[in-house]
Write a structure and sequence with these properties.
Blueprint: E1 9-15, H1 20-24, E2 51-52, H2 71-79, H3 92-98, E3 108-109, H4 116-124, E4 126-128, E5 131-132, H5 139-148, H6 169-173, E6 179-183, E7 202-204, H7 205-213, E8 220-223, H8 244-259, E9 267-273, E10 311-314, E11 322-324, E12 332-333, H9 335-345, H10 353-357, H11 387-395, H12 400-412, H13 421-432, H14 450-467, H15 480-484
Parallel strand pairs: 1-8, 1-9, 2-3, 4-11, 5-12, 6-7, 6-8
Antiparallel strand pairs: 4-10, 9-10
Length: 486
């Protein structure tokens, strides 16, 4: 087995809201050492079994509408009744029907033909069938876990805790190993206020491609997808009901850049999803280590993992066809990425008790160098962007998360205009204590259509990036007491 000294670059691409079964359940036939769907008993979801995309049909926007993903919805999906014992995994259909969806759609699962890139990588390198979302919660809490080892007590997407003050793996790498966050329109990581002094490390996705080509990948690279439509592209985050070929094409773009890079020989690429997004999976999530003692009024102690999500691990030291499971009793979750980065680069820690308990991904380095070079590239036709579909996507009302991103961008706008990080945090704290209905006149109201909200969020980030331009951010990192005051 190869040790961590062979890896000098860890790249993570985290997509949105798909369960393991939804994406990879039909990857392998029954009888293999792979806990997929062939032969899996799934009684209890109103008699509807998981079903693959029928030959010759297009299910790229299934399920539609967006399933439930709040903490309460997820518990309904898992337990279908009282929240006790081992989850029955029997409430997906009932919950989706309750929200107005066609129950059969929540049981749909993609095939190799639907997702050729993800399927190819899962077969060519390693796939874990025991990687769980860090919590049975929405997107933001699970993304906070991959950066900070905790959701800070929040079960759902909310701006109630904004700006979020948690210490992150990026802060611990700062000044020790180079890191960058690459994004398309608005990075969810921008919600974390301890990263604001380092906005110079936030770069657009095209810079990832050029960094890879130049052999200049940072030690740790985190990639966020496109959450909004724009004037030429649809979202590529794979969030239902967004068209999945755009996400598959993004995976190809990232893999091809890494595979062709001079850094390939020393790179570990992880492709995963933040949470299941309400999509069916048949494996009950187990108990988990609480990241920290619960806070007053916190109704969930984060002592359970969320639903299984896809996780594909790629490196020239990973044997083809590997099905990856942790050696000990604790399965993989998003804090395994933290443990991997920490062990790879010798960073002291951990950020939380959850991370301390997590296994790292050293088991994926199970082959000698060059034993598996993998495909030189994965070529897929560029998804066709239909003008009518693009216009419709831009004209739709924002989703809940898109709307929250736009509001967050509105709150971040002063950082693009000269306000210091320390002053802005103080201003935000004061605004929380302002009388109800008090308006912030410094920025315009956030737009309510997806196209306009995306354009607004992009414009805010462009101004912030221009202000915090390389070679280094302004010397204004606040004292730690500022963050504790949040």
């Amino acid at each position: 087995m190869t040790d961590w000294s062979a890896i000098r670059h860890v790249v993570v691409l985290m997509l949105e809201n798909r369960s393991f079964d939804n994406v990879l359940g039909f990857l392998r036939p029954a009888g293999s050492d792979f806990d997929g769907l062939d032969g899996a008993g799934c009684a209890g979801n109103d008699g509807i079994a998981p079903w693959p995309t029928p030959e010759g049909t297009d299910c790229s926007t299934v399920p539609n509408p967006d399933p439930g993903e709040t903490f309460d919805d997820i518990n309904a999906q898992l337990f279908n009744g009282p929240i006790t014992g081992v989850p029955s995994m029997s409430g997906f259909v009932a919950n989706y029907k309750h929200l107005g969806g066609n129950g059969a759609e929540i049981m749909h699962c993609f095939t190799r033909n639907d997702l050729p890139v993800l399927s190819k990588l899962a077969s060519s390198f390693a796939v874990s069938d025991r990687w769980f979302a860090s919590a049975p919660c929405q997107t933001w809490p699970n993304r906070f876990f991959v950066h900070a080892g905790t959701a800070n007590g929040y079960e759902n997407n909310t701006l109630d805790g904004f700006p979020f003050p948690m210490q992150t793996i990026f802060n611990e790498l700062q000044g020790v190993e180079p890191w960058k966050i690459y994004f398309h329109d608005f990075p969810q990581t921008a919600l974390l206020s301890r990263l604001w002094p380092y906005f110079a490390n936030f770069r657009l996705i095209d810079e990832f491609i050029s960094d890879a080509a130049a052999g200049q990948l940072p030690a740790y690279a985190f990639i966020e997808p496109r959450y909004y439509p724009d004037v030429v592209q649809l979202p590529n985050d794979m969030h239902p009901p967004h068209h999945v070929p755009f996400a598959d094409a993004l995976v190809a773009r990232v893999y091809n850049a890494v595979r062709a890079s001079p850094n390939w020989d020393n790179t570990l690429l992880i492709v995963t999803f933040d949470e299941h997004g309400g999509c069916f999976d048949h494996v009950p999530p187990p108990a988990a280590t609480q990241p920290e003692p619960p806070r007053p009024m916190q109704r969930f102690t984060f002592d359970r993992f969320g639903v299984r999500v896809p996780a594909i691990i790629v490196s020239p030291y990973t044997a083809a066809g590997t099905v990856l499971r942790a050696d000990g009793p604790v399965p993989y979750d998003h804090t395994s990425i933290l443990k991997t980065v920490r062990n790879c680069f010798g960073i002291a820690g951990p950020l939380s008790a959850r991370e301390a308990a997590a296994p790292d991904l050293s088991a994926a380095l199970n082959a000698p160098f060059d034993a598996n070079r993998g495909p030189l590239s994965i070529d897929v036709p560029a998804p066709i962007v239909d003008d009518a579909a693009l216009q419709a996507a831009n004209g739709r009302d924002v989703t809940h998360m898109q709307g929250l991103f736009a509001l967050a961008a509105k709150s971040l706008a002063p950082l693009g205009g000269g306000t210091t990080v320390a002053q802005h945090i103080q201003d935000l704290i004061q605004s929380k204590n302002a009388p109800a209905g008090a308006a912030d006149a410094r920025t315009p109201a956030a737009p309510t259509t997806a196209g306009a909200a995306g354009a607004f969020a992009r414009s805010v980030m462009q101004k912030i990036l221009a202000r915090f331009a390389t070679p280094k951010p302004p010397p204004e990192a606040p004292q730690d007491s500022i963050y504790r005051g949040q």
